[in-house]
């Protein structure tokens, strides 16, 4: 039942991203902040989304190398830029966490990074489901190795986290076993403290010269 609610919430989040893609909301000569506000208004007016469980992120240019916890200065989106967006809407009290990368123009290096990150997400998803058990260290190492093998570096110290009914912070402690990270040696597929756990898998790759990065995340199903 809970998983179905999480799937429904992700479906709503995907609808939001579909709208901003089809209507070319992502464009040059506006700031990250302005784009974030425009997406927020679309979510509110068209989908009835008003609550979010984490900060709304739009990052472009060099800001795309920074992970979630960083707070870089607001940048203008340029022509031929790379942008990633990370929104965590709440729908009927269940959380989603959805992230995608977009490339303006035809820069092959940026397009290749975007494609590689998407491939990495699905490869890690398939790796996860091919195992009877797998801990956070193992799944993180898989993605870190995928980045290295393709000429990139992994851009964060986590590759995902729990998702649940709002607020998952009240249900689950913010400790390593609730993140996909090197410090988590507990089976991700096991219940913990009597609770079934559901995961967001997130992939953030950065070029070795740290000029730009790409991001992709959604429910691990």
Question: Layout of SSEs?
Answer:
Elements: H1 2-22, H2 32-47, E1 51-52, E2 57-60, E3 82-87, E4 89-91, E5 94-95, E6 98-103, H3 108-130, H4 136-149, E7 152-154, E8 160-163, H5 168-171, E9 198-207, E10 213-219
Antiparallel strand pairs: 1-4, 2-3, 3-6, 4-5, 7-9, 8-9, 9-10
Description:
There is one protein chain. By secondary structure, this protein is α+β, with helices and mostly antiparallel strands. The chain has one domain (2-219): Creatinase/methionine aminopeptidase superfamily (Creatine Amidinohydrolase). 35% of the residues lie in helices and 21% in strands. It has helices at 2-22, 32-47, 108-130, 136-149, 168-171; strands at residues 51-52, 57-60, 82-87, 89-91, 94-95, 98-103, 152-154, 160-163, 198-207, 213-219. The strands form three sheets. Strands 7, 8, 9 and 10 form a four-stranded antiparallel sheet that branches. The protein has a three-stranded antiparallel sheet with strand order 1-4-5. β4 (89-91) and β5 (94-95) form a beta hairpin. The longest helix is centred in the middle third of the chain and has 23 residues, at 108-130. The two termini are 14 Å apart. The mean pLDDT is 95.
């Amino acid at each position: 039942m809970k998983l179905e609610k999480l799937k429904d919430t992700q479906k709503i989040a995907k609808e939001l991203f579909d709208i901003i893609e089809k209507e070319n909301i992502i464009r040059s000569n506006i700031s990250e902040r302005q784009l974030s506000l425009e997406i927020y208004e679309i979510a509110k007016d068209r989908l009835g989304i008003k609550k979010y469980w984490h900060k709304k992120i739009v990052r472009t240019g060099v800001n795309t190398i920074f992970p979630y916890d960083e707070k870089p200065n607001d940048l203008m989106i340029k022509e031929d830029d790379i942008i990633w967006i990370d929104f965590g809407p709440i729908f009927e009290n269940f959380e989603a966490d959805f992230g995608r990368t977009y490339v303006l123009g035809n820069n092959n290096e940026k397009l290749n990074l975007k494609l590689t990150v998407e491939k990495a997400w699905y490869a890690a998803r398939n790796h996860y489901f091919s195992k009877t058990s797998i801990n956070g260290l193992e799944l993180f190492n898989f993605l870190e190795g995928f980045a290295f093998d393709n000429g990139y570096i992994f851009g964060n110290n986590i590759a995902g986290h729990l998702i649940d009914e709002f607020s998952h912070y009240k249900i689950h402690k913010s400790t390593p076993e609730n993140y996909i990270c090197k410090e988590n040696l507990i089976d991700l597929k096991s219940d913990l403290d009597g609770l079934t756990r559901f995961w967001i898998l997130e992939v953030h790759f950065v070029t070795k010269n740290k000029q730009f990065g790409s991001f992709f995340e959604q429910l691990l199903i």
